Amino acid sequence: DADVTQTPRNRITKTGKRIMLECSQTKGHDRMYWYRQDPGLGLRLIYYSFDVKDINKGEISDGYSVSRQAQAKFSLSLESAIPNQTALYFCATSGPQAGPFYNEQFFGPGTRLTVL
Amino acid sequence: AQSVTQLGSHVSVSEGALVLLRCNYSSSVPPYLFWYVQYPNQGLQLLLKYTTGATLVKGINGFEAEFKKSETSFHLTKPSAHMSDAAEYFCAVSDRGGSQGNLIFGKGTKLSVKP
């Protein structure tokens, strides 16, 4: 089974709709991240969480919100979706900030979101 | 502020040829450096990383990268390309010992391998 899962894998929605993307992990990691990927722009950080009580904005948080329901779950919401939020969204996790896996992030398979 | 520049959004090589994907970074302190690969319709997978020690780092699938501090570079190479290497490759940097240690990604280089 995959260590980092994302649901749904694909979603088409309309402008103005509320959308939630979910991420679950079985790696036991404290740190979780949400990125969006656009062609030619690479990955940009939306939000990140270092533990259940610690949520931080990333580079492009406007129009998004997150919820860290448990150590293993981190959800991304678009309160009122707009077409320029059409993108590929990735969740990632990382482990202890010491030792051989320092800063190594593990990615989910992605959610392709289309906003019409 | 840290940044990553990947030269060439698309690189095309013939099967069996050398693969060279370029990455330059800017950082006020020696960073940690990473290369990730994204195969079609998949998430990102770590290829290799440099943290400390030997500046020539070997990764999976025959790839390697060399950290050159004087050139602020971390170019990715593979001596002989295989069709299965066709993918998008991302260079990333994070601060060393920073409180956040978040990754900053380059914009990616799409590698095509011709038969």
Summarize the structure.
The complex is a heterodimer of chains A (116) and B (115). By secondary structure, chain A is an all-beta fold.
Q: What characterizes the major β-sheet of chain A? A: 7 strands, mixed
Output the number of helix runs of chain B. 0
Q: What fraction, in percent, of the residue positions of chain A are helical?
A: under 10%
The end-to-end span of chain B amounts to: 41 Å
Count of beta strands of chain B: 11
Query: What is the H/E order of chain B?
Result: EEEEEEEEEEE
Residue share in β-strands of chain B: over 45%
Radius of gyration of chain B: 14 Å
Average pLDDT taken over every residue of chain B:
91
Radius of gyration of chain A: 14 Å
Instruction: State the helix count of chain A.
Output: 0
What gross morphology of chain A would you assign?
Answer: globular
Order of helices and strands of chain A: EEEEEEEEEEE
Mean pLDDT of chain A: 92
Q: Largest interface here, residues on each chain?
A: A-B, 24 and 22 residues
Distance between the termini of chain A: 33 Å
Fold topology:
The complex is a heterodimer of chains A (116) and B (115).
Chain A: E1 4-7, E2 10-13, E3 19-25, E4 31-38, E5 42-51, E6 54-57, E7 65-70, E8 73-78, E9 87-94, E10 105-107, E11 111-115
Chain B: E1 3-7, E2 10-14, E3 19-26, E4 32-38, E5 44-50, E6 56-58, E7 64-68, E8 73-78, E9 87-94, E10 104-105, E11 109-114
